[in-house]
Amino acid sequence: MKELELKYGCNPNQKPARVFMEEGDLPITVVNGKPGFINLLDALNGWQLVKELKEATGLPAATSFKHVSPAGAAVGRPLSDTLKKIYFVDSDAELSPLACAYARARGADRMSSFGDFIALSDKCDKATALLIKKEVSDGIIAPAYDADALEILKEKKKGGYCVLQIDPAYKPADLERKQVFGVTFEQGHNFIQLNDECLKNIVTQNKTLSKEERDNLLISLIILKYTQSNSVCYVKDGQAIGIGAGQQSRIHCTRLAGDKADKWWLRQSPQVLNLPFKSDIKRADRDNTIDVYTSDDYDDVLAEGVWQNFFTQKPAVFTKEERKAWIAKNTDVAVGSDAFFPFGDNIERAHRSGAKVIAQPGGSIRDDNVIQACDKYGMVMAFTGVRLFHH
């Protein structure tokens, strides 16, 4: 198939719409449902991301995409009991490595992942499909599907769930083009491979990087390669825990990603794990309630006449001091940036969210200030020399 007609483009008023190949056939097959314009942007970016994560780590990978940036991405490491609880995974569920990757990718930022498009590096198995079944999602792309997994996915959205199959052997042309305002842009496809070579230039006093830290830094960089710039990514234990995408200022990327990382960590606190939710509350409502409860706007869900909608009894306030003390317990976080940090304030903010190792291109006139900030905390920072802008 060389061409696929779409209902509309980015918005309903943008018609006609289609995707097509100038040469050869499309590398995707529509197995079920009907993809939209943004679905396909998410699918094709997400597939590249998980394919590269798998190549870099040797582990199955998954990502949860929303509006052309990942809300989460991860490799298939086992889940702790705490992660199972905050990711809504049954404690006795049989989980494949791919299912673990998806649970982590979806669980990183559940608010942002609502209505996501999923990409998987490996054949979708039943264990992964059963997790997807319970979530609000627009569609999925994978290189293949087990028969029982496909039947589960086809039942979503009253039979209209979008299921795409990608040819894993497909390689894009060396040159890529797009149009903006009737003007055609052309550039070489970003084929850069991110591996240990880009982490060799360690510029801080502390130069010790473990295998785990190297993997986490590579995961952050690969995620950034497919995240709308400017972007910063926090990674822990093989998964993104905070992604700041599409901000004009780098410190705002760092703060946004750090705030999301803090929210992820706060969800594992006793105060949140023991919240007395009503049994009939929906997942999305629970996610939203936790998001507000762990913020300075907690009264929006704890006010009299309001808390009764969510809880069986009124929870105690999770004070700012208590939240700060819990966040301070988060450690061993890796942080990547798609371009250089221009000021040391980025390091200060990353440190507050547990950052221990950092990878960024380097090249700022204030590199010395940034290195000095890392040295103050005994952090390791590698200058990759590689900028990863994505637009």
Short account of what is shown:
The protein has 391 residues and is α/β, with parallel strands linked by helices.
Please describe the topology of this protein.
Layout (H helix, E strand, L loop, with lengths): L2 E4 L10 E4 L7 E5 L4 H21 L3 E6 L2 E7 L5 H6 L10 H11 L2 H4 L2 E5 L5 H8 L3 E6 L4 H8 L7 E5 L8 E6 L2 E6 L22 H15 L5 E6 L2 E7 L4 H17 L3 H4 L9 H11 L5 H4 L17 H8 L5 E5 L7 H8 L2 E6 L6 H10 L3 E4 L8
Parallel strand pairs: 6-7, 7-8, 13-14, 14-15
Antiparallel strand pairs: 1-2, 3-8, 4-5, 4-6, 9-10, 11-12, 11-13
Helix pairs in contact: 1-7, 3-5, 5-6, 8-13
Question: Mind explaining what this structure looks like?
Answer:
This protein is α/β, with parallel strands linked by helices. Helix content is 35%, strand content 21%. It is globular.
Number of strands: 15
- Beta-strand residue percentage: 15-25%
Major sheet characteristics:
6 strands, mixed
Written as H for each helix and E for each strand, in order along the chain, the element string is EEEHEEHHHEHEHEEEHEEHHHHHEHEHE
Termini separation:
27 Å
Report the mean per-residue pLDDT as an integer: 96
Structural shape: globular
Q: Outline the low-pLDDT stretches.
A: none
Arrangement of strands in the largest sheet? 3-8-7-6-4-5
Helix and strand content put the structural class at alpha/beta
- Bin the helical content: 25-40%
* CA radius of gyration: 21 Å
Secondary structure tally, helices: 14
